[in-house]
Design goal:
Helix content of chain B: 10-25%
Structural class of chain A: alpha+beta
Number of domains of chain B: 2
Strand order of the largest sheet of chain A: 3-2-1-4-5-6
Number of strands of chain B: 23
Number of helices of chain A: 9
Strand content of chain A: 35-45%
Shape of chain B: globular
Number of strands of chain A: 20
Radius of gyration of chain A: 23 Å
Strand content of chain B: 35-45%
Oligomer: heterodimer
């Protein structure tokens, strides 16, 4: 850690020496491994180390960014020169200013599983093999597993700025996933995804992960196209998470202030059914995006986004917070040292309700249970919120799951969908789609299903 | 151009040897130096000026069917040796002797005007021009954002079979996105222009893309909700090629095929489309977005026939998968960076021009859908299910494109849709795209003229 701190401090000084009026350095290093397994054997084993520095420089009201992997004296000086040069090329922006330290970042326990993250690789390999084996043995219709992947890493971050921001933090994470292939007696293949997330391999349940993939693949055997209609839809947590992520991105103040969010003029208004409660929580130790401070050193917090059916706030970084006069919500996101901080979700948490899945299906009556969506990035207009995405799942008939369906689209718009949420399930899970999201299944009263 | 050496050949040879210290049939060093600049304009203000520089290396050893891989930042001898030590640490196998390195000829694309030598102010000025041109399309253009990006990757590959090669790749791209607004309604339009070229790419009238983006957004203001149902679909040229990329290209990547996770597995030589369909992957097309002199394993890129006269002609291979099938690599072993393992990827993939006239392809339809351009698409190669988001589409009524439609998605299954292609236009255009696979992003070119599919499901909101 001390090397990172040292690099960050040197970078701030170098930027000031290069003519910047203020500077902020974010130094990060990551060490991890990845194991890929196929057909009972290790396909690949990767040892990964990465280290770099991102530097934001201000020249009065102009801001620029540069990053580099060379942390030597000379390398840092080159990055500093590029950051200062980048700032000089930008136009003035009255809201551009370096973040100030707003109190001490909270201590967040449980971000590092120091014990299990260093599990010896042969034992990790056994775990991954167990995931694959579980899926292969779960059902005679499982024809294979395309790949089973495990990855873990420990990330360390140090941030320093000329405006007094200082912080360090360390976190570990790991995940495993697989794609199982099921085959019907008459041919035709279906796929099923299983996954798990944790702070260390001890937190992964190989049997649950393998079984989920097999169950999802087998459930799709014999799927046909549903009839086109408007009907109730139940989104399973993996699908609900994808939509929550989309909604989260449209609640980032950057999109809002620039008129590119369907929620731009809806602050304080009714935007959702009472059953839908959405928080951004940057402190939940189970959320892999949690940290004591955000991408510019501002303390993370828990923020209510949608509560009581109303839109409570947008997510702000220092820039958008100044521009709105609202202040930062500790929501400056970064995807590593290569990216400039900008307002984004941390962990999105959709509140649980009190219905078991069976009760949600019963309430839906006649509709579709969606277990997978495709094209969330290409099938959604992020400005208007209108979407139409590929989907597959199972028919809901008489309040219970019936035959599988695929090759259909579900369509609506984000605001209408939120308003149509009637109930949330009682059981939530963490999902890595749409960012880091914890959500239960959701019952949406109406969507357009387009099949045959 | 002074050809600065990325890694000294003696050092490269030593690293490859070190990687084989505990055994292995094959070892390879991939070294890379990459840098880039991105600038954008938003609210008529130049912002988000961002410059990056990275260097590092990945070392892999293949032993008994397992790939051992390690990557490090830095290109100093100690960095490369550390990568070799880490990659070889868990290897236990027969020792292979590395062959002496022999420099292979590689012909990087010729860059006329190095983008990093053009002043950043000139790039900012260009963005201001885009901003003005886009906004000038009408008062309903509420937002215009545009971005300029340049990137350079210098790569070197050395392996235990004696290969030593390198490439120097420069990509320049301009993108414009407009948002048009009328009352509560907001629509977006997007256009890009890019290539494996230097700043010379932007000679001519690059700011025209801002007009095109604005026009698309304005058109959508008058759009009706897209229809839902199965109908004939005419797909536009250029980025319409993403249809073939998703429907067929991914399924022909040998990693999917060898695991039986592709609907094209076992179909080599089989007829999958009408004889009028010819399609290729070509990483050697001069100046295109997915072009490279060599792939990231040092294999020269080539033009690979994928479908000829409606039959599957070849799969797409990297070294590892080619060896398994006993064939030569097709030069499709690509990686996002030195931090990734190579996997079979497309380069520039296109449907070759046919002999149909685009107007006639539309005129022959009583009712159908005209998908001019896409926002993107996705396929599950194992099942063949695909989905595309239409960014600009029109209803076809009585042989003419009529009302613009919003929110349309095309959905279907590869084999059925491919077999349903009944006309290929005589026009042709290549466009730039980014393809994601296995957590790796790669620039890919997609191209085609107009293509007609007899029946496809359009997923919209109008029942």
């Amino acid at each position: 850690m001390s090397e990172l701190v040292d690099a960050a401090e040197r970078a701030v000084e170098a930027a000031l020496a290069a003519g910047a009026t203020d500077a902020e350095a974010y130094a990060a290093e990551e060490a991890g491994r990845e194991v890929r397994v196929y057909d009972g054997a290790v396909e690949s084993l990767t040892a990964a180390t990465e280290r770099g520095l991102g530097l934001r420089a201000w020249n009065g009201q102009r801001a620029g960014y540069a990053y580099g992997t060379d942390l030597s004296e000379q390398g840092v000086a080159a990055t500093a020169a590029r950051a200062a040069e980048a700032a000089a090329a930008a136009d003035e922006d009255e809201f551009a200013a370096p973040p100030r330290q707003a109190g001490d970042p909270p201590r967040v326990e449980g971000l590092l599983d120091a014990g299990s993250i260093e599990l010896p690789t042969p034992e990790v390999v056994d775990l991954v093999l167990a995931v694959e084996r579980t899926a292969l043995e779960a059902d005679r219709r499982i024809a294979g597993v395309e790949q089973t992947v495990y990855a873990d890493s420990v990330e360390r971050v140090a941030i320093r700025s000329s405006a007094g921001v200082a912080g360090e933090h360390e976190a570990s994470s790991c995940y495993a996933y697989l794609q199982a292939l099921a085959e019907a007696d008459g041919g035709g293949r279906e796929t099923g995804l299983g996954f798990g997330l944790a702070r260390g391999p001890a937190g992964l349940d190989p049997v649950a992960i393998g079984r989920e993939a097999a169950q999802r693949a087998v459930a799709m055997i014999g799927a046909g196209k549903p009839a086109s209609r408007a009907c109730p839809v139940v989104l399973d947590p993996t699908v609900a998470a994808g939509f929550a992520g989309l909604i989260g991105s449209t609640l980032a103040a950057n999109a809002v202030q620039r008129g590119r969010s369907p929620f731009a003029s809806m602050l304080g208004e009714e935007v959702a059914g009472e059953a839908l409660v959405l928080h951004d929580d940057g402190l939940d130790p189970e959320g892999l995006a949690s940290a004591p401070f955000d991408g510019e050193g501002v303390p993370r917090r828990r923020t209510a986004l949608i509560e009581g059916g109303r839109l409570r706030t947008f997510l702000h970084d220092t820039y958008t917070g100044r521009r709105d006069g609202a202040g930062s919500t500790g929501s400056a996101g970064r995807s590593g040292y290569r990216s400039r901080p900008s307002a984004a979700t941390s962990n999105l948490v959709v509140a649980t309700g009190d219905l078991a899945l069976e009760a949600l299906l019963r309430e839906a009556g006649e509709g579709v249970y969606i277990t997978d969506v495709a094209g969330l990035h290409s099938g959604v207009n992020p400005v208007s919120g209108v979407f139409s995405v590929g989907a597959s799942g199972q028919t809901i008939r008489g309040g219970a799951l019936a035959e599988p369906v695929r090759e259909m689209t579900i369509a609506s718009d984000l605001v209408s969908m939120l308003r149509a949420v009637r109930a949330a399930g009682e059981e939530a899970r963490w999902v890595p789609f749409g960012g880091s999201v914890r959500t239960p299944p959701l019952l949406v009263a109406e969507m357009t299903v387009s099949g045959s | 151009m002074a050809d600065e050496q990325l890694v000294d050949p003696d050092l490269a040879a030593r690293v490859v040897e070190l990687a084989l210290q505990n055994g292995g049939e094959f070892a390879e060093l991939f070294a890379e130096k990459r840098g880039g600049l991105a600038i954008s304009i938003d609210e008529s203000r130049v912002e988000a000026v961002q410059a990056g520089a990275e260097e590092g290396a990945g070392v892999r050893v293949i032993s008994g069917g397992t790939t051992y891989f390690a990557h490090v930042d830095g290109l100093a001898a100690a960095d490369l040796e550390r990568a070799a030590e880490q990659a070889s640490a868990a290897v236990r196998g027969e020792r292979t002797e590395a062959r002496p390195l022999r420099a292979a000829a590689s012909a990087p694309q010729r860059i006329e005007r190095r983008p990093e030598e053009v002043a950043v102010e000139r790039k900012a000025e260009l963005l201001r021009e885009l901003d003005e041109r886009g906004r000038a399309q009408g008062g309903e253009v509420a937002q215009l954002t545009a971005s300029y990006s340049e990137g350079r990757r210098r790569v070197a590959v050395a392996n235990s079979e004696g290969l030593l090669s390198g490439d120097d790749r420069t990509l320049v791209r301009l993108a414009a996105q407009a948002v048009a607004r009328r009352g509560d309604q907001a629509e977006a339009g997007m256009e890009t222009h890019g290539g494996h070229r230097g700043f010379e790419l932007l000679a001519g009238d690059p700011a025209a893309i801002a007009e095109q983006a604005a026009r698309k957004a304005l058109t959508l203001l008058d759009a009706d909700p897209a229809p839902a149902g199965t109908m004939p679909v005419v797909v536009g040229g250029g980025f319409g090629g993403v249809l073939f990329h998703e429907m067929t290209g991914h399924g022909l990547e040998a990693d999917h095929v060898q695991k039986g996770a592709s609907v094209y597995a076992g179909k080599l030589g089989e007829r999958v489309a009408e004889p009028l369909l010819h399609a290729y992957d070509d990483g050697s097309m001069p100046g295109e977005w997915g072009t490279e002199a060599i792939d990231d394993e040092g294999t020269p890129t080539q033009r690979t026939p994928l479908v000829e006269e409606g039959r599957i002609s070849s799969f797409l291979y990297d070294r590892l998968r080619a060896e398994r099938d006993g064939v030569a690599s097709t030069g499709n072993g690509r990686r996002e960076s030195f931090r990734h393992l190579p996997i079979p990827r497309m380069t520039n993939t296109y449907i070759a021009p046919g002999d149909a006239k685009p107007e006639e392809m539309i005129a022959e339809l009583e009712r159908g859908f005209y998908a001019v351009s896409f926002a993107g698409g996705q396929v599950e190669p194992a099942t063949g299910d695909f989905v595309f988001g239409v960014s600009e589409g029109y209803l076809i009524e009585n042989g003419k494109p009529t009302r613009p439609c919003r929110g349309a998605t095309l959905i279907g299954n590869c084999l059925e849709a491919l077999a349903a292609i009944d006309a290929v236009g005589d026009d042709f255009e290549m466009k730039t795209g980014f393809c994601g696979k296995g957590g790796q992003r790669a620039p890919v070119g997609t191209g085609q003229g107009h293509v007609r599919i007899k029946a496809l499901t359009v997923g919209g909101t109008a029942l």
